[in-house]
Amino acid sequence: MSLTVSDLQNTLLHLFHARGLGAGRQVPLGQVEQLWSITTLRRGDLLDAIVRLSATGNLGIDDQAGDTLLSLTPAGGTGARMLSGPEGMPWGQYLQGVLLPTLRQRQLPAAPGGNGRRHYESRAAQPQAQRHSHLLN
User: Fold this and answer.
1) Whole-angstrom Cα distance, residue 5 to residue 76?
2) How far apart are CA 50 and CA 87, in angstroms?
3) Model-level pTM greater than 0.85?
4) What pLDDT digit, counting tens, does each position of 42-84 carry?
């Protein structure tokens, strides 16, 4: 099973909502990347979600002093509040319990104090990624 474009967009909306980052609250791209790394999804998936949510008017992108800032638009904030998986399952629960476990190759968050490079996880590394899964809800 692979994630759809909609799954990626919903995951980014969920991360904003789960952290209380409502419409208009600007967040540096670096902080969004840190939140995304918890999902173990690829950075390219995040960039795809950002582009698509911006194109649909759900995400605002601003540049201040060379720093890229992201914020939910009012439409994005409403969408984030209304997210759910199949049969009304909360999106965070659906992501963690159904979608992420079905992916064969995912990224692990960068190691603290590391050089910023990410390593692809193997089946043996999954327990480490699962230790961070509580942060998705």
Assistant:
1) 16
2) 26
3) no
4) 999 999 999 999 999 999 999 998 899 999 999 999 999 999 9
Q: Which of 95, 9, 21, 91 is nearest to 57 (CA)?
A: 9
Give dist(CA 95, CA 25) in Å, integer: 24
Is residue 36 a contact partner of residue 105, using CB atoms and an 8 Å limit? no
Cα–Cα distance for residue pair 25/47, rounded to 1 Å: 19
CA distance 116 to 28: 17
Distance CA 38, CA 23 (A): 22
Helices (H), 72-124: 74-81, 91-94
